[in-house]
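Page 42, continued from yesterday. The earlier attempt failed because a stray header line got pasted into the input along with the sequence. Redoing it now with the clean sequence only.
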Amino acid sequence: MKPLNEQISDVITQEPVAVFMKGTPQMVMCGNSHRALQALHAAGAPITAVDILPDPRIRQELSSISGWPTIPQVFVKGELIGGADITEELAESGELGQKLDEALGAERAQEVKVVELELA
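This time it went through. Structure tokens are written below.
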């Protein structure tokens, strides 16, 4: 089993759009996570979600990797976009859609999946 920080880094670098959130897209456990998801949906993003709630170490490792203290955290092609407020602002201005077009192409699939990290 890979160390937790490697699993988190793998999701950030390998998934086109990664959202570390409280809960899952099917069962969101936080208003800010919900707002970030809505902004990503509106911009046509494929979403890979990771629930940080199963273990406090997930949030600790994530914040040490990203340097960002709050949840949710949204990454596009390995780059931290920010949390709910920034993601919403980028979606409203059209910048999020542009960023997604540049990073992933305009003909991207809008799939939603959940990655569960292996916890020792």
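Notes: Residues 31-42 form the longest helix (12 residues).
Reminder to self: strip header lines before submitting.
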